[in-house]
Amino acid sequence: MKPAALIDSNVIIAALAEAHEHHAPSVALFTGPRPAAFAIAAHSYAEAYSTLTRRGDHSPFRFSAEEAWAALDSLRAVTALVGLTPAQSVEAVRDYARGGGIGPRLYDRLIGEVAVAQGIPAVITWNTGHMRGLFPRLEVVTPVGFAATTG
User: Fold this and answer.
1) What residue spans define the domains of the chain?
2) pLDDT tens digits, residue range 59-80?
3) For residues 4-19, average pLDDT
4) Which residues are registered as beta bridge partners of 38?
5) 141 neighbors 128 (Cβ within 8 angstroms)
6) Average confidence score pLDDT of the chain
7) CATH superfamily of 5-150
8) How far is CA 81 from the centre of its chain?
9) What is the 3-state secondary structure (H, E, C) of the chain?
10) Closest to 143 (Cα-Cα) out of 1, 2, 12, 34
11) What is the pTM of this model?
């Protein structure tokens, strides 16, 4: 079955971290009465793992390596893993740089590129403004917005 949407790493993090302000609506995507078929970009696992296990003053979650992997693996079991080819990855970064893109919005760009390359019509994210700005032709919704259109 073709995925209904690609899940952004910020939704993955919110779904896995009970302390996250968006935990309940994020986890509901995967546990609701009629969960949809979702995909996750392969590189989003690395981004989520890094955030969940980060240490320091601005590290809200502090999962151990084992906790983070187990949590991510639980989502891997119920989603499709998708990605870009190496050439597509290089081209996406090149295009981002040519357009003057800098910093971590590159990860939003890569997630959107995965959706486009895989023919996935929607991205579910808590950063709708960033993603819509990069990919105006994709449907970009929050978990709450997605639930409202499919419920």
Assistant:
1) 5-150
2) 778 889 999 999 999 988 889 9
3) 93
4) 5
5) yes
6) 90
7) 5'-nuclease (3.40.50.1010)
8) 11
9) CCCCEEECHHHHHHHHCCCCCCHHHHHHHHHCCCCCCEEEEHHHHHHHHHHHHCCCCCCCCCCCHHHHHHHHHHHHCCCEEECCCHHHHHHHHHHHHHCCCCCCHHHHHHHHHHHHHHCCCEEECCCHHHHHHHCCCCEEECHHHHHHHHC
10) 12
11) 0.91
Residue 102: per-residue pLDDT: 92
**Residue in the block written with tokens 């032709």:** 137
Mind listing the pLDDT tens digit for each residue in 24-41? 999 998 887 666 789 999
Specify burial of residue 3 (Cβ count, 10 A radius: 0-12, 13-18, 19+). buried
Token readout for 24 is: 């309940």
